[in-house]
Every structure is written in structure tokens, then in C-alpha cells.
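Weekly sync, protein design subgroup
Attendees: M.S., D.O., the rotation student, P.L. (late)

Item 1: inverse folding check
M.S. brought a backbone from last month's batch and wanted to see whether the design step gives back something sensible before we order anything. D.O. pointed out we never logged the input encoding, so this time it goes straight into the notes. C-alpha cells as presented (146 positions):
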């Protein structure tokens, strides 16, 4: 271990504290899953087209919803503490996953492991996506940034 003079240690502490203060904070959000009718999705960017979601039938041990938007829409960075599978059914979804971006087209499937950071955007034509989580709860828990 290097023994730094006290002034260098204080400077290092100050710089580390500044970076920590600027780092994005994750807040936990628990969203009750919707029923079978379309409902407004609360974590969509309000300055773009609305995003709606509804529950769809799924096999035991999983929860599934369908997301849709009729125009350009965005859902910000978040992650879950359980795996998630996306299946694009209409339009295109721009998915950013762990810093890489790809386009999902109808029929494409993407899987995220627990804790993997992701965000999603529909283009001007909107789209529809089925999302399945490996959890049995009637709510989905997200860690969101902002």
C-alpha cells in the first residue's frame, strides 16, 4: 500500500465523492401488472407517444404482458432481479442492452438475464412487444435510473 500525504488523500476523497454524487441512482419501482384491458404504462417518457400494456396468458411460474405504442415512444433504463424475454410482434423496437443497441423486428426474441440494464424505444410507426418475466408475483419490480 502506498502512503500518500494527507492533502492527496483529502483530494482523492473529494474527487471520489464528486463522482459518486454524479453517478445515476437506481430507485426501486413496483408496478402492479395490468388486467386484460389496455392501460397506460407509467414508466414511458411522457413527452412522446403513450405506451400501453395489458396482461396476456402465460404458463405457470411466469407473468406476461403486451406493450404497444402507436408512435415514437421510449421506456428508460432499468433492470429486473429476474430474467426477461421480449418477443417483437409488430413494428420495430430499438433495444439498448448492456450498452449495445439492436433492432427487434416481428418474430425476433431477446432474452435478458437478471440484473442486465436495458431500455427500449419504438420508432415513429410504433410497435407491439410481448414481455415475459420469470416471476410469479402480480407486480413487476424494476430498478430505474433518474
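Designed sequence read out in the meeting:
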Amino acid at each position: 500500500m502506498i502512503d500518500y500525504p494527507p492533502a492527496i488523500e483529502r483530494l482523492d476523497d473529494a474527487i471520489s465523492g464528486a463522482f459518486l454524487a454524479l453517478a445515476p441512482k437506481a430507485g426501486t419501482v413496483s408496478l402492479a401488472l395490468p388486467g386484460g384491458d389496455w392501460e397506460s404504462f407509467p414508466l414511458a417518457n411522457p413527452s412522446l407517444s403513450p405506451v400501453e400494456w395489458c396482461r396476456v396468458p402465460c404458463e405457470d411460474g411466469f407473468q406476461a404482458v403486451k406493450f404497444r405504442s402507436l408512435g415514437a415512444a421510449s421506456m428508460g433504463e432499468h433492470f429486473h432481479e429476474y430474467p426477461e424475454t421480449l418477443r417483437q410482434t409488430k413494428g420495430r423496437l430499438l433495444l439498448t442492452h448492456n450498452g449495445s443497441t439492436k433492432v427487434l423486428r416481428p418474430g425476433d426474441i431477446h432474452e435478458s438475464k437478471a440484473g442486465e440494464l436495458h431500455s427500449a424505444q419504438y420508432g415513429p410507426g410504433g410497435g407491439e412487444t410481448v414481455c415475459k418475466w420469470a416471476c410469479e408475483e402480480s407486480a413487476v419490480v424494476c430498478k430505474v435510473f433518474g
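Discussion: Residues 25-145 form a domain with the Jelly Rolls fold (CATH 2.60.120.10). The first strand starts at residue 26 and ends at 32.
Action: P.L. to compare against the previous round before Friday.
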